Amino acid sequence: MEIVNLTPYRIILPDGRAFPPSGKVARVDIGYTEITEESGLPVVSRKARQRGKVIDLPVMKSGTVYIVSMLVMNEFPNRWDLVCPYSDYPNTHSGTDRYVKCFIRNY
Question: What does pTM read for this prediction?
Answer without folding.
Answer: 0.80
